[in-house]
Structures are given as C-alpha cells and as structure tokens.
C-alpha cells in the first residue's frame, strides 16, 4: 500500500513522514513535493508534484492508495490548486484522501476559511473516500515570536482576551498518521485543537516565567499590529493577514474544547509551556 503526502518538504509534511516511518515501511511512503530536491533527505521515495501543473500530479499519484493532501500555502490560489490534485487522485484510482482543512471551516470567520470550505465541497463531490482533518492553530504560529518578544521586552498582538486552543505541529502530524494508518476514519470530520486554551497575555506570562524577565503582552489595534509587523520586515500580505487572524481570535475563532485531537492521537496535546521552552532553547 502506497501512502503519499503532499507538501512533503514543508514543516508539517516532514513531520508526518518522519512519524509515518515509525508505523509503516519506508518503501510504502511517497513524498510529493513541488521541488523534489527539498525532500531528498526524508529517506523515502520522492516524486515531483506541483499543484499548478496537473501533468506532474498524474505521474506523482500513480500506484498511490492513500493520500494526505496538505493544503497549499498560496492563499487565493488554493481552490484551483486543490481541484487539480483531487482530479488527479480520481484518475489515479486513489482509494482514500485525508485533507488538512481549518478548524470549524464551515462557520469560521477567518479569511482562510472560504478556500478550505470550497475544497471540502470539492472533495465531498469527488466520490473519493475522504477524511477531513480540520486543524486548529499551530502553537508555533505564536512561539515563532518568542525570540523577538524577549529581544524587545514585549509580546505584541491583536487577540485581546480571545482564548486560543492551539497545539504543536507535531500533534497535528500524529493525528494525520493515525488517520493514514488505522481504519474507521472514512467520511469523518475531526475538529482538531489543543486540550488547553490560553490568551496571549497568558502566553506572555509563561515567557516571563521561563526567562525570569517581565515580558508583558501588548494588545494593539489590528492596523497598528500590521504596521509593526511590516516595520519588522514581514512581507505583504502577511502583516494584514496575521493581524486579521488575531482580530478573529479575539472573537473566539481559534477556540475549541472538544479534545478530538488528543482522543485521535491517544495522548494529551503538547502543553504551551513545552512549546515555549522549545522556542527558548538554544539553536
């Protein structure tokens, strides 16, 4: 049985392949990447798969039984890209598809949601056996800012007192592996989020506790937060996008307390304090 993973050179894809290798023979795993050389060190078969080039997708999915379709990274282009790989999966006779969607995609107020909802609709209409992994926020989305927060003496954002039920990227990778390697997931939708939720003020307090320094949370209007991110060198359109995500988090868009993720992976999700410790650890 061949299991293929798209986006194999990305953070999530690499983790999935690493963990999948502990469950199935390496010869059964196929890493699909737009630039194969970037996935060359994964220890499995690598095939070129470019969401924008259907000719590569037909070849990439030959002989594949199960596909983990990690959502594309190009916001605004993902529906067309995902349609290409769904059509290729149908032509190749792929038996099962798992797709990394967005938490509560059908009702989420995040600007990311419509593309995920449209992709889910395409999958449901495809006739393929589908499992939806509606991933919540990666804790790394916030811990990536731990270093700058320590350097500048404050953690900035626009999430107010919104509760964020994030989980480590590795937790979501383990959920994907569970679905890829065990039965009974066909037709199911999983709302995946961390066991515990926190505010950004609580995140900043944990940074302060671990560093022994006072690193307060500074809540900014979204426009000011976007301006600060732009000033820090973050390229467009990410400053405005990240500020909008925080603004929706303030309204509860990143919260879920169903604990479906920990149930699926058979262990608690990674605590925030552990993710912060990892971010603070010397490289």
TrEMBL record:
It comes from the Bacteria. InterPro entries: NAD(P)-bd_dom, NAD(P)-bd_dom_sf, NmrA-type_oxidoreductase. It comes from Pollutimonas bauzanensis. Signal peptide: none annotated. This is NAD(P)H dehydrogenase (Quinone). Residues 7-181 form the NAD(P)-binding domain.
């Amino acid at each position: 049985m061949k299991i293929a993973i798209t986006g194999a050179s990305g953070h999530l894809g690499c983790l999935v392949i690493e963990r999948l290798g502990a469950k199935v023979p390496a010869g059964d795993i196929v890493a699909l990447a737009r630039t194969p050389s970037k996935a060359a060190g994964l220890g499995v078969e690598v095939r070129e798969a470019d969401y924008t080039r259907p000719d590569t997708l037909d070849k990439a999915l030959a002989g594949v039984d199960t596909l983990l379709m990690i959502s594309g990274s190009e916001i605004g282009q993902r529906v067309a890209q995902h349609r290409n790989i769904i059509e290729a999966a149908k032509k190749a006779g792929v038996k099962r598809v798992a797709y990394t969607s967005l938490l509560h995609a059908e009702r989420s107020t995040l600007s990311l949601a419509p593309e995920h909802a449209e992709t889910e609709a395409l999958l449901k209409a495809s006739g393929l056996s589908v499992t939806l992994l509606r991933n919540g926020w990666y804790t790394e989305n916030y811990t990536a800012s731990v270093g700058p927060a320590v350097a500048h003496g404050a953690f900035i954002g626009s999430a107010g007192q919104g509760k964020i039920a994030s989980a480590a990227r590795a937790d979501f990778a383990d959920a994907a592996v569970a679905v890829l390697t065990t039965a009974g997931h066909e037709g199911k939708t999983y709302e995946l989020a961390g066991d515990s939720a926190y505010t950004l003020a609580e995140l900043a307090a944990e940074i302060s506790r671990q560093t022994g320094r006072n690193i307060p949370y500074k809540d900014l209007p979204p426009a000011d937060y976007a301006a600060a991110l732009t000033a820090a060198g973050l390229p467009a359109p990410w400053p405005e996008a990240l500020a909008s995500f925080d603004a929706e988090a303030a309204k509860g868009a990143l919260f879920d307390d169903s604990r479906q993720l920990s149930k699926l992976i058979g262990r608690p999700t990674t605590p925030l304090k552990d993710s912060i410790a990892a971010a603070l650890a010397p490289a």
